[in-house]
Amino acid sequence: MDTSDSECFESADEDIQSDEELPKKVFNKDCQNLLKPNPNYELEASETLCDPRTEESKITRQNDASIKLEIAVKGDNESKNSNKASHSSSETEDICQVTSKINTINVIDDSKPVLSRKENVEGDLCNIKQVEQETVKKSRSCAKTKLGSKISKDTVKFEITPEKKKSKVVEKEKLHKTENNIISSVQIVENEKLKVDNDDQNLWDDEELDWGTETKLESDAKHNISKDNTEEYKFQPSPSSNTPQFNPHIGKKSENQSDNWGAWGSWGVSVLSTATQSVSSITSQLTNVIETGLGAADPEELARIDREEKRELKESLGKECEQDIPSEAPSVGFGLGNLVKLVENTGNKVISGGLDTLETIGKKTMEVLQEGDPGLKKKRAFLKIEQNKPVLSQILREAKERAENERNISEEVYMKKMKNYETLFDDHHGLVHLEALELLSKQCEIKLRNLQNSLNGEQYTEFLETMDQIKELCELPDEEEEDQISILEIREKLKKAVTEMNVQISYDKLMTNWEESEVWLNALNMNICDEKELHQQAIETLAQLTSLAMEQFHKIGELLLIKDRRSTADEADSLVQVTTTLTALIGIAAAKFSEKLNSKICESTNKEISGLITNVFFEAANSSSYIQDALQLLIPVLQVGAV
Amino acid sequence: MVEPIFDLQFRLILIGDSTVGKSCLLKCFTDGKFAELSDPTVGVDFFARLIEVDDGTRIKLQLWDTAGQERFRSITRSYYKNSVGALLVYDICNRASFDHIPVWMSEARRQIEPHRPVFVLVGCKVDLAENGGQREVPKEEAKLFAQKHGIFHVETSAKYGWSVEDAFRKVTEEIYNRVQSGEYKVEDGWDGIKTGFVRQKGLDINLVEAEPTKSSCC
User: Fold this and answer.
1) Where along chain B do its domains lie?
2) What are phi and psi of B108, to 5 degrees?
3) Mutation target among A415, A420, A435 for the B interface, most CBs of B within 10 A
4) Of A264, A534, A608, B189, which is most buried, counting CB atoms within 10 Å of its CB?
5) What is the CATH number of domain B2-213?
6) Taking Cα atoms as reference points, which of A134, A125, A130 lies closest to residue A61?
7) Test the B interface: residue of A417, A521, A550 with most B CBs within 10 Å
8) Each residue of B166-177: pLDDT tens digit?
9) Residue B135 in contact with partner chain A when CB distance is under 8 A
10) Which Pfam families does this chain map to (chain A) (predicted)?
């Protein structure tokens, strides 16, 4: 078996001639082949099956991971292939799992069936999961087959637009591995419109009948419809079943299928079964491709993708499929001749029937979705307005962007509400005290420099020595990991330091502030406290403590400057004490808040909370460095007192 | 507490003799409270409030409440520099405090140079005079002084909140006018005027909407 060329497909004769070649051809078919009125439909159909290109489907996951399924029908055209494709997909077992989360489905127009769906699987919100689970359950119950799409972090778009009139199916398939996008669009135009019973089962049965009587037409339709499957398969409007239908992924076909084909009559059974198998394999291939990761892509862009590329891909797929189904190959040729003729005759009817089916599916989908989504009508109305826009996918893309923007904004708003440390530090006048202290410090430096310039000789060196001595006095001891000193000890230490400095300040306010925070923390009901608020409180507390510390340092500076008798050594010693004690307090506060935050850690929030804890420690370090900076700023004040 | 979002920040300084009521004036303006007794200010204290001018611009006033005591004079002097406005505060029942105003004013002028600060002359404790106290500074005299120097004049009572808002609003609006006329600019190395947290257009609505859900737990 040689890999089929696209050209081969163009001529129906060729295809039919060799049984063996059929499967290959089936795989290799190009959409364009479909356009031609060849009897090759069967083959093409099989391909169609693998990919429901008839529809453009996009599922967009928005903030809430909602997926919009939009179904729009354009023109009076009817797409048959799409229906079939969806049938096939639904029939097959194990094929589809619904990975995607669909919260919303928008149908633009009932009368006109263009299914557009964009799937974006991203987050995993709980409600989405639930939806998924429900979906799976439903699909299982209504049919043994699992319907759904197995699309992960991919975007699959299918677009149907009316094209040429006169009953031919145009199918385009575009696979782009590099971009990881798959877009397929099938355009079907038909003059006739058939009325199809709403009942799904009936619908399918009708179709089967049509197929049988009129022709063995397009393999597409037949393909997908096996008796068993038909019976089992119901188009239930449950979101789960709907969703999967649009998805082109067909993993496997039920083993029974080949048997079922018998019901169709003698014609082309083997061909069909072969085709089915081929489709299955192709589908699985496609699925693999898709699963490897598809990024959302502009349908237009994708449309421009080289045909060559597509063919290459198909060829490769074809080859692979070949290997998969060697045993089936011999039976392929049976009844092909009949099929070809019949295809020509009944093409129109089949297609129209398929379109109606699609429409029905769409309507049912809408109904189901509307039940679950009261706001759907609004969205529908909204989308309807923009219907005139050239590309539906663009609307969807814009909607997605809008949703993302909204999410970003809401996050920003949240961040705005949550004041950062600097803002809080400013609010509590910590920053301005530090600034004022800086002014004092500068003033003292100027004084010292003037003094220094007026000195010379021995006085000058003496002066410098004094300056250095004071600097040394203010050096902080290496961080000896003191075992946690208690709040009481801290209070005592501060009091003692203030006394030694002999200035009228007090750290009572600061200590009271922390004690209140501690009381609040201890009384905190961890069950109802949000970790973000806890974090905010931690930052607030740190900022407040630091601000109060700044205020006291500032006051100390001012009071030292107006003090009558200075005792620089004591002052320096006391200030070092104050500094270390305050940084210790900051450490205690940070540890206490982190401990509380830590208790909130559970698996789902692990990363977030550890981020918050890191931030608390970061701001605590920030606080400590502010405090140590303040001490440095006080050095000139001390030096002024020493000369 | 000051809201985090403002467009501009003006730094104002309150100067004047000890016990004329600078701190009370500020407490009244920022907290709406009045304390009969309060400790003398040490060095400088800070207050802040947000004011919205006519065109909707939100201005944060950062208020430096200096100690009036003579012993802090050398210290407070170093704080003048970064102010864009100065409230010259005197006690209408204390003649000396009014007489010292020219000294305060020239001191502030000198320190704030090269910038030209906006002054407002604020007479405090009007309520004392109303309640039979001895007014030592006639309103007309103060007004004349203000006119002579081209500054505003307001008489206030922090106890009853009379004209307190007015005093600060006058300075703020005058500064804002000068900002708009280009006389005052945001400059590096001078903190008289700063830009604040700029509101993003379009975010405002969201902020307002989001507000109600703010305090849920804890």
Assistant:
1) 2-213
2) -65, -45
3) A435
4) A534
5) 3.40.50.300
6) A125
7) A417
8) 999 999 999 999
9) no
10) DUF719
